[in-house]
Amino acid sequence: MAAKTLTLTTCYHCGNDCADEHLLLDDKDFCCNGCREVYRVLSKSGLDNYYAYNDHPGANRTAKETRWDYLLEPTIARDLVEYTDDQLTIVTFYIPHIHCSSCIWLLEQLNKFNPAIAYSRVDFLRKQVNIRFNNQDINLKQVVEVLNSIGYEPLISLQDVVKKQTLSQKDDLVRKIAVAGFCFGNVMLLSFPEYLGISSFEESFKVFFGWLNMAFAIPVFFYSGFGYLRSAWTSLKHRTLTIDFPLALGIIVLFVRSFIEVYTHAGSGFVDTLCGLTFFILVGKFVQRKTYYHLSFERDYRSFFPVAVQVIEEGGERPVPLADLQVGQRIRVRHQEIIPADAILLKGEAMIDFSFVTGESIAVNKTLGEVIYAGGRQTGGALELEVVKPVSQSYLTRLWNNEAFTRSQDQRIETFSQRVSKYFSVALLLVAFSALAYWMPTDTTRAWASFTAVLIIACPCALALSTPFTMSAALGIFDRNLFYLKNAAVVEQIAAIDTIVLDKTGTISLNSANTVQFSGFLNDDDKRLICSLCANSSHPLSQLISRNWVCAHPAFVSSYYEVPGRGILGEIENCEVKIGSARFVLDQDKDVNQSNNTEVHVKIAGHYRGYFSIQHHYRDGFADLKKLRQQYKLYLLSGDHGHERQALSDVFELPGTMYFEQTPQDKLDFISTLQTTSHKVMMLGDGLNDAGALKQADAGIAVTDNVNNFSPGSDAILDGRSLKKLPAFLKFSKDAVRVVYCSFGISLTYNAVGLSYAVTGRLSPLIAAILMPLSTVTIISFTSLATHLAAKTRKLL
Amino acid sequence: MSILYFLIGCSVLLALVFLCAFFWAQRDGQNDDLYTPSVRILLDDKPPAGEEK
């Protein structure tokens, strides 16, 4: 064994250990045929350079078989391509495996494989490749096959959210910032002589500068700042006061007063303040908008389900888009494919893995004529099914008709700035009108001057900036800790919660990493027998056992019999071996005893030898969740059976905090029940079965091992490795909200100082020009410093 | 001092040229992907010396 470890080699292509298989080509080692084939394809095309940029840049290629026939179907292809005419087709694929510079290099050399591919460009951060090809010489399916042959299998789904997100972002915010910045810079320069003072001799310049400034103010007002005016107007129509209202008021007053001053030669106006204000609040908006283009937070069942289904018709199979699937059609579902709609099993041996739907990781056997619910994954041979319900009506997708999926996500928790801006606006108007009323009887000009000055100086620029800058700094810190938030508002949502609901399988326990322990005694010969027998079964538990006990020389199984859902029986070397449930092996009802783990019993030659217990592994930091009990209510909602109740009770010790065998609808209902008792709920889940609950919760967090995989629609995506940091994340989000409070306090102080000048009606443009950027700079530097400091104390940096 | 009118006109014109250049770059998609080109520039068309078999 020791000698074997020493000679253990790593695959030249993917870098995995060549444990089971060991293949050679050109003096290079490969772990599997797939990896070797990729190497062969690359070296044949003279693209060995791929390996020169990085060691082992490839993906493991064991056992991946995908059928792309559906790409030939015009209706499906039309939804995928961006542009096509009779010559050229442009398509963008999302390729999760893009991870290093070698990938960029290789994917941009696609024309070496097929000259019909004219152009390919990689967007590394979004993990996308844009391909243009001549559709006379090559079709979409062949392009995908080229990609697949070199180890870059694209992830194709009809709900391509990645593309949609980039499209929706295409407004002209950056251009508005550019215009505002351009005008701001020029106006500052042109206001310079005014602040220094112009002698009467150069009075003509004053008029010139004034009008030039006004010229710059026009694009700022009508283009850059116009969005604020419009949104203030709509919010007024809905009788709500948002932060945009005082901002818009400030912008209008600045513009009008500047115009009047310049027109009447009364002064130089506040054009620099207007431009600066617009510029800074637009920058704040830009910062707030920070998103992770490569992650998708809005997903429904369509991204989990196959793009097309093989429908059996007279004369063969035909791929049909999922949406066109009709009741009564016969479909074929192959190994590792997902059942797209509730259907009756007609032919084939069904071993359905429902971990997607219920969280139960052990495959379920289904008999002919039984209804199989959508969302299960077949883990055996091909099946023939008859659809009994349309996709949109099936068990799992019915969830999507729930109102949780239709309401606007951003309105769930009123953010601090929303709450404050109401009072702020009212207070602002109150001060302004008091100043107007105070001066009116004595001095009309002064009255108007003070009225407008109050509206100018109190314009909540700093308030509008403190939230975006704090939250985006927090977003960056979460990002470093592998916690990706949909947008900045989610930080406040997380800070507001008081109840945490966890899913079990995939969220706090790992689906794949289970340990098998044997209680009893076995000699090496027995182990060999068990292993040989288990290798014959496709049942996940058998697979698990045979994987754990790799035996060098498998024995010949002379007879083999499998009772679905019970166990396996076989004769090996004239010795009867029986492996399975207690009921099957011992003819007794031991299944229902108090054991916490899944058990597999073994009987060899009529003697009971003991049992395997399969223990689920909990994620790192699961025990740390105990700390959360002091501040939060913890609940567990699992679709699984309750055989791990004991192991979990350490964290969920209070009675009535663990719920098992929950359907997706149950989970959603549970969350909404909590919410009706005015709890703010955070849900952590992983699969499609949690999707409803994630949507319903005030903060839905998808836990995943690979953030580039499909994860259900949620507010945030948490890498499983960072689950242990959850208590720190929660504390830090509260810190971030506190930073916003403090910066608001600072901003109010500036406003108070400014107001004391403003109410007298003697606000000079110079003071406004100094106060506005000064408060902005203070707020921005305070928020980023304070947020980083908070992250340090929470050990997140 | 009337030269100031001319000079300011020139400076504003120049600034406008830059603004237009930025608009063009933005429309052209030059700011869409700010990472990949930085890697792409380091990748050679021919294999690096010494790496050839």
UniProtKB/TrEMBL annotation, chain B:
Give the InterPro entries listed for this entry: Cyt_oxidase_maturation_cbb3 (IPR004714)
Which spans are transmembrane here?
6-25
Keyword set, alphabetical order: Membrane, Transmembrane, Transmembrane helix
UniProt name for this protein: Cbb3-type cytochrome oxidase maturation protein
